[in-house]
Amino acid sequence: MKSVVGSILKANSAYIAKHSPGYLARLGGRAAPKATVVTCSSPGGSVGMLGGDADADLFVISNLGNQLASSEGSVEYGVRDLRTPLLMFVSHTGCGAIKAAAGDYSNLGPAVQKELDNIEIPKGIDATNGALININNQVEGAILKFSGEVEAGRLAVLGGYYDFNNDLKQGRGKLVITNINGETDPARIRELTRGGRYFHYGFMGR
């Protein structure tokens, strides 16, 4: 335990040494993030996401399986109170929550079971495809919840996958965008990404 706490404090000291007092003061000021990001609580859930000025640009929420339902209040705060124009759900290779939801989790505690019940994926599905389905489900749920913001063009809802094993063949460790406002076709996503068309909604003919 002592070594774990020591490692955390050491990492904090390194972080302080790396950044200027002005940068740290900005982090302590009024929050004005550019995106609300829901990640998995697992260590792989947000690796490589934060860096440089990204610390101050992201309102990050972590929970079991990067779910909307588990942190609905926090997500709503990011979208409607902080008014971030981007909401993103991010999963990752080998997600433990996905593996658990795809199997028998009746031996886990009631609170954990309740969270896993909200991950609607087929039993027995592999972790990669299960994660991709879950991402799509979270994006769909968010589009429905924030339909007013989406239809007004004030909010884009994206899904992403940290591909540490290069399962999607786009590079090991890459954060792959897998869903843009309900669009899941890889070729179409590449087209939208290249054009910066993150507020395109295929289901609305936009």
Automatic annotation (TrEMBL):
Binding positions for Zn(2+) per the UniProt entry: 40, 92, 95
Single annotated GO MF: carbonate dehydratase activity
Cofactor: binding details: Binds 1 zinc ion per subunit.
InterPro entries documented for this protein: Carbonic_anhydrase, Carbonic_anhydrase_sf
Cited SMART domains: Pro_CA
SUPFAM superfamilies: beta-carbonic anhydrase, cab
UniProt keyword annotations, A-Z: Metal-binding, Zinc
Cofactors that this protein relies on: Zn(2+)
Family: Belongs to the beta-class carbonic anhydrase family.
Name used for this protein in its record: Carbonic anhydrase
Protein source organism: Chromobacterium violaceum
